[in-house]
Amino acid sequence: FRRSKVKRYEEIQERVVEAGLRRIRPCLMTTFTTLAALAVVLLSTGRGSDVMVPMAIPVFGGMAVALIVIFVVPACYCGIKQMKWRLGLSDTDFTTDREAE
């Protein structure tokens, strides 16, 4: 992803999408299995649930936020890099001989 410098504006989004596709499957698998396991704890009503449910709520919320972050962080990163490109600001990921749009 960062081995070579960005030469075109469109390449920024291509790289972010490629990196996202590589890491999204393992992240989603981990998040969904954890949320599924915690859903059982959250819905429990038996003995000991009065202790387990309050402990599971913050973990469930954290995993739900992690699920949102998987999509939001790459979008923000791409937006910032593209804004820097359009404004002509320097960045360590850009080549020095980039073409103006």
UniProtKB/TrEMBL annotation:
Tell me a GO cellular component. Answer: plasma membrane
Membrane-crossing ranges are 27-45, 57-80
Is Transmembrane among the key words of this record? yes
Q: Which InterPro entries match?
A: Acrflvin-R
Residue ranges that the Swiss-Prot or TrEMBL entry lists as coiled coil: none
Q: Name one GO molecular function term.
A: xenobiotic transmembrane transporter activity
For whether the record's keyword set contains Transmembrane helix, the answer is: yes
Per UniProt, what is one Pfam family of this protein? ACR_tran
Listed A to Z, the keywords are: Membrane, Transmembrane, Transmembrane helix
PANTHER family in UniProt: CATION EFFLUX SYSTEM (ACRB_ACRD_ACRF FAMILY) (PTHR32063:SF24), PTHR32063
Question: Which named protein is this?
Answer: Uncharacterized protein
Q: What is the phylogenetic placement of the source species in the record?
A: unclassified sequences, metagenomes, ecological metagenomes
